[in-house]
Write the C-alpha cells for this entry.
Amino acid sequence: MGMGGINLNLGNKAAAKSIATGGPHYGSGDAIADANANNGFQFGMGPMGLGVNMDGDHSGDHGVDVAISVDNNVQAEADVSLDNDISIEIGQSVCVDETGRERSFGETWYCNGDPCIVSACTESNEIKNQKQECDPYPSAPIGYKVISEKADDCCYIHRVVKSDCDPEQCEHSAPVCEYFEDLNHVSKDSCCASYECLCNPTKCPSFGDAQCPPKYKRMVVDDHSCCPVKKCVRGGGALAHANSFSGASILLGDSMFKFEFGSGPHGHMNTDVNIKSDQDVSADAGVDSAVDIGIDTSKSGRGSDYISLATGKYMLLASNAAKATAVVGSEGICPGVTIIPDSQCPADKYFDGYTCVFAQDCPCIRDGVRRSTGSVWRENAGCENCICIGGEVKCTAEICEVNECPTGESLSYPVGSCCPVCEPARDCIDSNSVGREFGETWVCEDTCEECTCTSQGSQCQEMECAAQEVPSCGDNEMLVQKADTCCSSYECVCDKSSCASEPPTCEHEYEEVVATNPDECCPTYECVCKKEKCPLPVTCGAGEKLVSTECSECCTVYTCQKLGCTDESGTFHNIGDSWEHATDSCLICECKSDQNQICSAKQCAARTTHTCQDGKEPTAVFDVNGCCASYVCDFTCTGYSASARISTFDGTGFSRSCPCTHVLARDIFGLDFEISVNRKYCSGNAGSICTDSFNLNNKLSSSVLTLGSNMELYGNRNAFDISRVSSKVSIAFKKLGVVFEYDNSADVWEITVPAKFSGKTEGLCGMADADSANDLWMGGYCLAISKSDSVETFFNHWLVNPRDECFTDTLVGVDDSLVESRDFCNKIFRQTFSSCDVDTSEYLDTCARVTAGCDVPADGETIALSWPGCSALAAYATECSKSGTCQQWRSARLCAYSTCEVEGAAYSACGPDVARTCENFKTYNGVSVAFNSEGCFCGDDKVVVDGKCVDASECPVCLDESYIGRKVGEQWRVEADPCLVATCQPDGHVVQGQVCCPEAPECEEGEQLVTVTDEEECCAIYKCVPDDHETRCSSVTCPEVVRPVCLEVGETLVATASGSGGCCMTYTCECNTATCVDVSHTTCEEGEELVIVNSDGCCPTATCVCKPDSCPAYYVPLCSAGYVLSAVESGRCCVVYECVCDRSTCADSGIPTCSGGEIAEVTNAGSCCPIYECRCVPDRCAPVVQDCGSGYKRVKTSSANDCCEVYECLCDPVQCPAVSTTYCPTTPGFRLLKTEEKVRAPGQLECCPTQAEESCICDISSCSLAMPKCASYQRVHRTNPDGCCPEYECECDYASCETGEMSCPSNKHLAENVVNECCTTSMCVCNECKEPQPCKEGYKATDSKDECGCVDRVCEPEPMCYLDSVAHAPGSVWMEDVCNECSCSDIPNSLGEYESTCTITKCGTCSSGYTYVPVAGQCCGDCVPNVCHHSSKQYAVGQTWSPDGDSCKTCECMTDPHTNEVYTECFAPSCPEIDPSCTDIVSDGCCQKCATETKSSNGCAPTVDFSEHIEFEGCKSTEPIEMTMCHGSCTSGSIFSSETGSFQKQCTCCTAIETVTKTANLTCPDGSTKKHTYKVATQCACQSSQCAAP
C-alpha cells in the first residue's frame, strides 16, 4: 500500500479495507483493518463508532496489526520504542447542540448540517454561530466563461477561463478545504491551475476562556494550529531518560483525556522508559535502525505552506517531553491528596495522605469518599462499573447479556434499564441514523449509492447518473456546476454582483436597512422602524410643555417647548405678549393663555372728514403701515420781502437774509420736484436784499423753469401749467399737483403741495406733515426750534452753494440812510395801521432794510407801488387781517394796487382768504372763510376761468389726453387718432366715439372721381372732375395752396375747383353734421339742468350743467363748540352738510388732578366737549399704615375733608440712640483726631442730634521706617499690610533661583541639589545599572556600555530555527517525536526570525470495554480490553461469578497492578468443617453446611465496608471513619405464569432501607477545621429489582 491512511466507515455486518488521505471517519459495527506503518498511526472510537487512520511509509520497520471484531474487541501489536512526557488535557462537555448532543469546549460543527454556518462551543456554555461569506460570481468577457469549483463544504471559487477550456483534462483538481482555510489557485495556463489550502485565521471562531477544574490551567496546547483552542492542562510527575523522543496519544471516552508525547526525528533511538501512572507501565525498546520520516505532498492534496502550518500545530508537545509520565502529581503526592508539611517520600513513592506508597497503590478520592486501589463500585444509577486503579477512577458501562439481535429484530432500551432487549425491527437505519421504512428507497450521498430497506436490512448499489441538460439562465443569474452530489448537475443561481441596488443610508438611528424581497435574487432595500431604538420622551421643567417635533409611523420625537406662541415668522412670544403681524401690519396679534394667538385689526383712532380751509375735500393719507388713515389738506408755505420772512408748511416762522440761493421745498427723495429762490443785494449800500429769481424743476419731465422778479419766464414751459392775473403768476407742476404762486407787487410767494406729499418734503419750508416740531428738518434729523442757533444752522444747511455767506436778520450796518429809512417806515406803520396790535418790529426791520438807500418821499408825496417798502406793508397788513383787523390800507397815494387783469374781478384788501374756484365751488358754502386777503376777486359766486370771472358751470370737469381741462359737454378730436371724438361727461368721465365719414359722391357723365387724402383728416376728400382733366390742365401751373387744418368737431375739408379751366383746387373747412358723433344724454342729478352747449358750433350737444342755486335745502348749519362742518353726502352738483363732533377743537378744560381715593368723572355725558370733576370712591383709598419702623412714629396727616385717612411714619427723636465713641487701635502710628464739624452718626435718623466728628488716623511720621538687609536670593516682604507702621522681613525670592536641568536621557534621572536655604537646582544623575535581559532562544547578544557604565544589549536573530534549544537549518524538516513533524522556514519573517512549525498526528478513542494503551515507538497506541471475557460474557474488574455447571467454583475479573492487564482468576473454596452436633446439614452444591449457620450467614444486613480517613475539598478527617454497606443473599427465581404462558422473573437485591447521617471533623492544611456529613446504612432488606433478559 502507498502512503496514506486507513478509514473505516462500516455498516452493520460489513467489513471494508480502504486507503485515503483525509482524516479519521467514524462508523459502527464490526470492522477489521490492518496496515504496516513506521509512523503515523491513529486509532479512535468516537460517538459514531470506530475509526482508524494511518499515515506513513507502510514498508517501514514497525508493524501494526489492527483487528476489530464484532464484539468491539480491538487488538494491536507494535514493535516500538517509547520515551514520553505526559500532560493531561481535559476537554469538558459544556454545550448541547441543536440535536441534543453534548459538545466540548473548543469543538466546532456544522449547525443543523448547514455547511455555511459553523457552530462553536465557547465559554459559559454558549454556542456561537458564524456564517461563512462566499465570493460573488464574476462576469466573463466575450470568449471566456466562468467555471465554479468547490472550495470547501459551503462555497465555490470561480475562475474565468477561455470558452474552450475543459477542466476534466487538467492535471489537478480543486481539493475541498476546511472551513478555516482558503483555496488558493495558481493559473498554469488559460484553463488549468494548481491548488492548495491555506490557513485563514480570520475565519476561526472565538471560543473565549472557560473555567478549568482545580489543579488545571487553561493554555493553548496546539498554538501552531490554524485555529488554536485553549485546553485545561494538568502536569504530572515522570521519570524519563532518552536520547530522543517518540510520541503517542491516549484518548479515553469521548475526548476526556489526552496524553501527549514528544518524539525524536529519526535514527538510532535507544529508549528506556519507566512510566508511573494509574498502572505501572514499563517499556524497553531498542531501535537500531535509521528511520527517515518524510511527507509526500504530491498525493496529500496539500501545498508546502499548508504542510508547514499543519506540521507545526502541535509544537507545544515538545515542551512537554520532560513532564510527568503518569497521572500522579509532580509534587510527589497522590491525586486529590492534600499536601502536609514535611511529608517527603522517596523518589519512587508518593504520599497518599497517611504514608508513602507506590504509584499503583495510590487511593482514589471521589465525591469525598476515599477508596483503595482495586475497589469496585457502581455509579450512574448502577449502569456503570467503576474501579480504582493507582489513584484514578475508571468506569465502564454495565456488561449486558444482549448486545446484538438476530435478523428482523433491533436493540431497544426499556425505561429504567441499563441494558437493551431485542424487539422486532420495524425499519432500517441509514448512514445518517435516519429511520427508513421497509420498501423505502433513498440515496446515500456519502457513498453515491441507491439503497432499499429490505427484511435483510439496507441493500445498496451504485447510482447511475443521467445525462444533464444545461439550463438557460435569465437576468441576474449565473450558471454553476454542482459537483458536491453524486451526479453533477447544472443550476442557475443568483448573481448578486450584477444587482444594481445598494442599501440606503437611513435618516434616523432608530431605523435599520432590510431587504423587502428576501426570496428574490436582487434585493430591494428600505429603512424600517426599530421601535426599541426610539428615543425616550424628555422631562420638561416649569413653564414648558412636551411637544412632538417629528411624528412618523415609527417614532414620535419629543422636545420641551416654552409655554407661549410662535408667530408666522418663527418668532417666539410669551403668554400675554402682543405684536404686529409679520405679513399684515394692520393686524395686532396676542398670545393667549391657551397658547393660541388671536389676531385682530389694528384699532385706528376715530377720525372724521372735514372741509379744508380752501374749501377742498381733504385727502386720506395712511400711516407708514398703510392701516390707519388721516384726512390731510394741502400744505402751504409762504415768504415775502425777498424771502426774508418764511412761514413753513406747518406754520413755523423765521427770518433770515442772504444774497444767495436756498432750496425752498423739494420731495425728500429728489425724484419729483424742487423749488429754490435766488436773492441779491438791492440798490444802495445798506446791505438790503431783494428777490432776483425763482427756479422751478419738474424732475418727472426733466424740465427747469426760471421766474424772474420782473415776471419774465425762461426755460421749458411744457411741464408746467402757467396762469397770470395782474401782478400774480401761478405755475402748476403737471402730474404732481404742486403749485407755486408769486405776486411781484407785494414780493410775496406761496408754495402749495398736495396731501400726498405729507411727510415727504424738505427745505426751508420744512416737512409737510402737520407737526411743527420737525419743521427744522435737516434731511436725516431735525433740530429743536427752542435752541438759539438752530434756525441759523437750518438756514445754512439748505444753501444751494454751501460757500455762500449768510447773516442774521439784525441789521449789518447802522448808517444815516438806514436810520432815515427806518424812521420813515415807522411813520408809515403808525399812520396806516394804528388799529392793529401785531408787533411791527419784524416788518419794520424788513421795510428799513429793503428801502435803505432809496429816496425818502416827502410828506404828502404819492408812494408808488414800486417803492420797496410796499412789500413789508402788504405783509404786515396780511398779518393784521389774520389777527382779526382788516382794513383798506392802500390808497391812490400809498402803494396803489394796479388794475386787475382778471375780467370782471375787483380789488379788495379784505377779500376772502379762500377764493371760490372750480375745485371748491360745490362745497364753498361749507368752508370757513375769513375776509382778510388782499387781491382781485370775482363777485356774484363766480370763479376765474381763463382770466375771466365766469359761472361755475364754465369750470372744466374733465382732463383730456394732454391734461387740458374740458367743460361739460365739450367735444374734441383725440390727438392720436383724428377719427376719434372725445366728449366730457358731467361726472368727469370722457367718452369717445368714432367719426362717421360720408360716402363718395356719384359723378355725372363725362366726369371722374378724384380722391384727395390728408393724414390729419379722418375722412377722404372726394371731387368730380372732367375726364380730360389731366390733358386739359397739364399746361396749367396752379399757385401753392396751404390746406387749412379743421380742428372743430364736425368740420370737414372741402375742395373747390378754381383757376383757369377749373384746373386748380382751393380748400376750406365746412360743417358736415353727418360726421358728428352721437352722444347719449346722461340723467341729470339734483341741481343740474339739461343745457345745449356748443350751439354755435358744427355739432351742438345737450348735457347736464350744475346750477348750485337750484340745489334743494341749500343750507349750511352753524356748528357749536367742539363740532366741525362736514360734508356727509356729495353729488355731482349738490352737497349735504352736518356738524360732526371733533374733540380736538374743544377748549381745553383739562382733566383735574384728584387726591387719593378720588376719580375724575364726566359731568355732561353725551356732550361733545366733556367737563370733569373729582368724586370720592372710598374703595380706592390706599391701605392705612399700621406699623412704623424703628425710630419712627405713626402720625395722621389727612384732614377731615379729605376722601381718605392718611397716616405717615415720622421721625421720633425719642428713639435716637446714645452718642457713640470712635474706636482707634493702640498699635504704633494710630491716633484719634477730633474736628469741630458736627455730624450725625451713620445710620441715625434725620431728627437725631449731631456730635463732633472723630476719626482714627495713621500718623506715619511717628513710625520707624528701618528696612532689613536681605541676601541676593531674598526679597523684602511686609508682614503687617493692615498696620499703620510697616514691619518688614526677608523672604525667599524663588524667581531668582536657577532651575537647572528640566529633563534627562533615559539612562539618567533628575536629582535636587540644595544651593542655599531658598534655592535648589536639578541635575541629571545616572540610574542604577540593571542586569541586561538575556536574549531569547535563537538570538545573538551584542553588548556595549553607555556613559554611565551600564550594559546596553542588542539582540539580533541568528539564521537558524531553534526548538527546545536545538538549532535547525532553514528549509530543513525533522521529526520532533513520532507524532510531531517540524520544519524550518526558508525565509525569515519581518523580524528576521526563522520560524519552526510542527504538526501533530491525532489519535482516536477506544470503545466501551477497551482501554487505550500506548505502544512504544508508535504515535498512537492500542485499545486493550479492560473487562474480562468468559464464556462469551463480559465481566468488569472486581466482578465475581460461578462458571456454568460449577456452583462450587468462583471466578473474579482482576487486573495486574504492574501491567494493567485484565485477567480472570477462578478458585474453589475450601469447605469448613461441620459441627458434629449439627443435625440439619444442607449442601449448596459445593460444600455442606449447617442449616442454622446458612440462615444467619446469608441474611441481608449492614456490614462494615472499610474504615479509613475520608477527604473532602482538601481537608482530612481526624479519625478513621467506618463506612457500611448492605451485604447478603436475597431470593430470585423464575415462576411460570398461566396468563402469559411463560416464566416471569422475580429478583430481589440487598438494599439499604434506612440510613443515618453522621458528622465527621475535618482538618484542613491551613490548620482550620470544618464539619462534613455522610450517610451510613443502618438497616438492609431484600427488595425487588428488574432482572436481566434470559
Remarks:
- Residues 1-88, 235-330, 808-814 have pLDDT under 50 and may be disordered.
- Helices lie at 304-311, 790-797, 816-832, 841-851, 869-882, 1029-1032, 1491-1497.
